[in-house]
Structure formats: structure tokens, C-alpha cells
Amino acid sequence: MKKHININEKYFRNDPEHFSSENFDREEKIISAAYGSADLFDKIKICIDSLFNSEVRAVYKEYKETAAAVKSLPKVECPDEVILKVHKSIEQLKSITAKHSITERLFSGKPAFASLAALAAVIGIIGFLIFRSPVIEQTYSQQEIETAEKQLRYSFERIGLVFKKTRSVIEEEVLPKQVGQPILKSINKLNDLLLGG
Amino acid sequence: MLKDIGYSLAVKQHKNRIYSYSFFMLGNKMDADDVTQEVLIRLWQNMGNFNLTAMRAWVMKTTHNLCLDYLRRRKTAQQRGVDLDEETADLIPAEDGSIYPDIELQRKLLKEKLNIAINNLPESLKSVFVLYEINGLRYKDISEILSLPINSVKVYLFRARKKLQDELRQLVYEKAY
Known about the structure:
The structure holds two protein chains of two kinds. Chain A is mainly α. Chain A has a domain at about 10-70. Chain A is built from six helices and no strands. The longest helix of chain A has about 55 residues, at about 140-195. In chain B, helix 3 crosses helix 6, helix 4 packs across helix 7 and helix 6 packs across helix 7. By secondary structure, chain B is an all-alpha fold. Helix content of chain B is about 75%, strand content about 0%. Chain B has seven helices and no strands. The N and C termini of chain B lie far apart (about 60 Å). Chain B has helices spanning about 1-25, 30-45, 50-80, 100-120, 125-135, 140-145, 150-175. The chains are: A mainly alpha, B mainly alpha. The interface of A and B includes residues 62 and 85 of A.
């Protein structure tokens, strides 16, 4: 005797976890057939069953209508402005990565590049330290310059006075008394000796 | 140069799939826009890290993970009392006018209900359903994207279809009474 699929209303209300594997299999086949994803043998079997069983027919029809509605849903297309925004973001990313790639090539790229870059940097720093000529620019006000000139003039005057005093001491005291007299005495003594006095 | 050409082709190939998936998963255009942008930028950053055959799986996996992040954030925001602007009614793109206004209206209503029902599906079921029914992926691809065994994908799809039917019945019942 032909065994018809017996679908109870509870199958469509309760959680599928509670179904037996046999019921699950039958129901799954009806639904798959309605959605068109069952294999050919199952499709034929369900079609025949639906001819003889009103419950199967009703369920099959119900699911078939839903399946048709699902299949006829219009395709949702991505708006163009989304793609434009993506391209803008990518352009920004490109410019950022281009900036990074220069430093990356120098310092985190190949070892030869890295060592050359490091060497160039060291030479540059040393050269700068050696050959730099510190130019200290100092600026003075007019008043400061005048004061400095006055102080210089005063200093020269003081030095001039000291030299003048020293000269008079030498001429008036040191040369006649300390040098001239002993020399005169020596000459007199020499004269006495030569004349036989 | 080659990267740019490859990227343009990849965007052309995947943009609608990414957008459609995030649109159905998140239920509003704004978040779908953001997720699509994020995925496409990540795709550019990772160009060359995977071959062309693995690209679709990578793209969809990234999209799925980002959608989950958005949903988690949304849940947190809702718990904090932030009112999110849902645009479930806007889910259906406009179609050309029909010469039969009644039929067109019925179709529109059904699609609206369908979109609400899809939106009401739990995340795990919704992801499998959208990938299979809307994006047209195979069990194997879905299994790879969601890191699930193929049998689990089949069970999830079955549950999703059943749940969707329940949701639709519920919506019809609510409308009738």
C-alpha cells in the first residue's frame, strides 16, 4: 500500500528540534520541492503525493507561493554614490601610503637601503657639527657704545698719567741719584788712579 | 596599475552581492551603505592576498562578519535606549508601473510582508536564507562563508523557510484581525 506523507499542523508551529528525523526529512522535501531546490526524484514524488493528499497539496502550494514571491523579489543594487565614496576613501589611503612608503623604503626596507640611509644621516650630523661657524650676533645701543668709548678714553688717560709719572720719577730721581751719582763717583776714582792722585 | 584594474573588476562583480546581503541582514539602507563601503575598502587593502577563486568567499565572509558587528552594536544601542531609525518599509526597490494596478498593489503588499518577514528572521537563519535564496549561492559556498558544515546549512535553510512561512502567516493573521 502506498504510504502518503502525513503532515500535521504542529510541524509548522513547533521547533524543528522536536521533530523526528523522518518527519524532518519529509517536511524538508516538501519545502525544498516547493522552493525548487529538491532533486528531480523528490520533486516527482512530492507532486504525486500532493495529488492524493490534500494536506500535502495545501502545504506545497503555500510554500510554492512564498518561494515564487521570494524569487521575484527585485534585485537590490548597490547605489553609485557608495562606490564614489569608496573610490574617494581609497584615493586618500593611496596618498597616505605613498607618504609612508618613502620612509619605509629608507628605514624598514632592504638592509642595504637602511644602512646607506643611516650612514648618510650620521655623516650629515657630524659634518654639521664640525663645519658649522657659530656667528654670534650682538647688538648694542648707541648709548652703550658711547659709554664704552668714554670708559676706554678714561682708561687710556689713566694709563697716560701713570706713564708720565713714571717718566718724571726716572728722569728726576732714579737717573740723577741712583744711576748718575755712582757713575760719576766711579769716573772720579778712575781719574784719580790714572793721574796718580 | 594591475591592482587597480583587478580591483575595479572585483568591485563590479561583488558590489551588488555585498550590498544586497547587508541590506537584508541589517534592514536599512544607511547601514548597508556603510558595510558595503567598509568591505570594498578592505577588499582594496587585501588585494593580492588571495586568489580570484577565494575572493567571493572572502568578500562574503567579511560582509557577514561586519553585519554581525553592526547587529551587535545595534543591540547594545537598543539596550541603552537609543531609538534606531528602521526603514523596513523602504526595503523594496521601486519597480516599473504595471498596467494592472490591483495586481501590482497585491504584489507590492506581498513583497512588503515578505521583506518584513525576512527582516524578522533570527540572524543565523536569515544569513543562510539570504545567501541561498537572494544571493543565489550554493550550499558549499555558504558553508565556507559561515564556517558551518553543509548539513547544518541545509537544516538552517529548512528552518529559515519554515520560520519565514510562520512569520508570513502571523502577518496575514495580524492584518485580518
